[in-house]
Design brief:
Elements (H helix, E strand, L loop, with lengths): L5 H8 L2 H4 L9 E2 L9 E3 L3 E7 L5 E7 L6 H12 L10 E10 L2 E9 L6 H8 L3 H20 L12 E4 L2 E4 L39 H16 L2 H6 L8 H5 L5 H9 L1 H14 L46 H5 L3 E3 L11 E3 L22 H19 L3 H14 L6 H26 L41 E4 L4 E4 L13 E4 L2 H6 L3 E2 L6
Helix pairs in contact: 5-6, 6-10, 9-10, 12-14, 13-14
């Protein structure tokens, strides 16, 4: 089947109640940028959207760019292995092979914890003159790489864009190329960023030594920048300081030459890296064999002053007006390729919301129906209604058939009765779908941005999803489990609780404790 484009994903994710099958994701609202479009980060293999929850927390929805036949098998292997080891730097995730509906087909998604913070290159640009902060990063980096190796895994694409600095601590995202021991008979699904990978790496080099070269490149870059911050402006682009050209010809590389001049540890590691460039990828030594962390304390206990910086983002902050043409009510603006949309194509923007607009808790509703939701829901509702009506065929068939006979219809009254029943069921389905769409996310593009959106911590005491299977309680005293990836807590008997990976599972003595920790209750089991 055809694979969705960036625009297809953009249109679909604006309607969470329709596109997600997970009832808790259906209650989320996609973040928007200052142009009024869904806030998205575009990578080589996926588009990442930010979905806000009413607790104020958020999830990253990773939507894939194309087909990879064994993607589900790989993520299941990663999931199972990470359940048995502890790697705090790796972001929590849950893979769903049918997570999002785009058009009439479902496609896989990866729901991850949203990690706030700049990528490594953006962070370095802000702290490039702070030697102690950069050396602290280098120290952290050794610990992160050692934790991966101790867990017998390799990330597969260690580079600045996949390293997030969250409150001064390093976190890893984008696990598409990860290796775990059960993948020993597989080949690599990607070759990683060319400015960080061994020049002779190919898809057949796929084992726990996969990160050795890129880990050394990043560590040497960090300790070099701590001593020579002037090299940042001189050599940084889509890299830190090294490029593939340096790896192909180390003897002619200006970067290698500048590092050797520093002497000491820098010169030694530069010579190790140069030798690795000229050898097979499998012969690159592990970083743990070349350097040791200065501090044995946890990273959060050794952060120097200035390690945390303000994050710059294209996301629209609640209360902030849409920028440029969007705020003036212009019909459209070009959306650049960096947002993940087709370059040069224009998209309609909403009229700016006045400062007197409602600031109701979550979310703001726009005028009109969600026609995408209507289209998707009409036939299932009509089919259910028609199927139920078959149990009462003894009543309605003679009645309608008698009416048509009284009106003088001869011969085809029975066929006319059946067609009336079918059309009536469709009409009922359309009516119910429109009613349902009124309570869902509006089908407009882009999303209308209210002047401010507030996210209350406490959930409503009642819900339309209340059922006899899960009776409500005014003061819950039973234990609940929560998902770190989705920020939701459930009854232990809930079907969605059973889908939580063990490493993402958090237990609470009561629902009140879960709410106090910032989790929101499941909309299915209503704990």
């Amino acid at each position: 089947m055809p694979w969705p484009s960036a625009t297809d994903y953009d249109e679909s994710i604006q309607h969470p109640r329709t596109c997600f099958k997970d009832p808790d994701l259906q209650d989320g609202v996609p973040a928007i940028d200052r142009l009024g479009m869904p806030f998205v980060s575009s990578g080589q293999f996926a588009y990442v959207f930010k979905l806000k929850h009413i607790t104020g927390k958020a999830s990253a929805i990773r939507c894939f760019r194309g087909f990879m036949g064994d993607r589900e098998q790989r993520y299941k292997a990663i999931d199972q292995h990470l359940d048995s080891v502890a790697v705090p730097a790796v972001a929590s995730f849950e893979y769903d092979s049918t997570g999002i509906l785009v058009g009439s087909n479902r496609y896989p998604t990866l729901v991850m914890e949203w990690i706030d913070g700049p990528t490594l290159d953006v962070y370095l640009d802000a702290v490039i003159q702070n030697r102690s902060v950069i050396l602290n990063l280098a120290d952290q980096w050794i610990k992160v790489v050692n934790s991966l190796r101790a867990a017998k895994i390799a990330h597969g694409d260690l580079q600045h864009g996949n390293i997030i600095v969250q409150n001064g601590l390093l976190r890893l995202v984008d696990l598409d190329g990860m290796f775990v021991p059960s993948m020993s008979q597989m080949i690599s699904s990607e070759l990683g960023h060319r400015h960080y990978q061994h020049p002779r790496r190919d898809e057949f080099f796929f084992n726990c030594d996969l990160d050795n070269f890129s880990a050394l490149v990043i560590y040497l870059s960090l300790i070099t920048l701590a001593e020579r911050p002037d090299l940042w402006k001189k050599f940084h682009d889509e890299n830190l300081i090294f490029t593939r050209a340096d790896f192909l010809s180390p003897s002619n590389s200006i970067v290698f030459s500048e590092i050797r001049k520093i002497g000491g540890e820098h010169k030694r590691l530069a010579e190790v890296l140069e030798k690795a460039c000229q050898s097979a990828p499998s012969l690159t030594p592990a970083l743990s064999e070349l350097a040791s962390p200065v501090s044995k304390l946890p990273s959060w206990m050794t952060q120097p002053v200035g390690a945390v910086i303000a994050t710059k983002t294209r996301e629209l902050i609640p209360g902030q007006a849409l920028s440029g043409a969007a705020s003036s009510g212009a019909a459209s603006v070009p959306v650049t390729a960096r947002t993940g949309f087709t370059p040069g194509q224009s998209y309609p923007l909403p009229q700016a919301v006045s400062s007197g607009a409602s600031t109701s808790s979550f979310p703001a509703k726009a005028v009109g129906h969600d026609w995408q939701s209507v289209r998707v829901n009409t036939v299932p509702i009509a089919f259910t209604f028609a199927l139920t009506g078959l149990f009462f065929v003894w009543a309605w068939f003679p009645l309608l058939n008698g009416i048509y006979r009284d009106l003088g219809v001869q011969g085809n009254s029975q066929a006319l009765t059946i067609w009336t029943y079918i059309l009536g069921s469709l009409a009922f389905g359309l009516f119910r779908a429109i009613q349902k769409a009124k309570t869902g996310t509006p089908a407009i593009s882009p999303i209308r941005a209210p002047a401010s959106i507030q996210y209350p911590i406490q959930m409503p005491t009642s819900s339309p999803r209340q059922s006899s299977k899960y009776p409500s309680t005014s003061s819950p005293s039973y234990s609940v489990v929560a998902s770190k990836a989705r920020h939701i807590y459930h009854r232990t008997s809930c079907e969605w609780a059973r889908k939580i990976a063990p490493r993402n599972k958090v237990s609470f003595a009561t629902a009140t404790n879960a709410q106090a920790a910032g989790y929101r209750r499941c909309g299915v089991c209503l704990p």
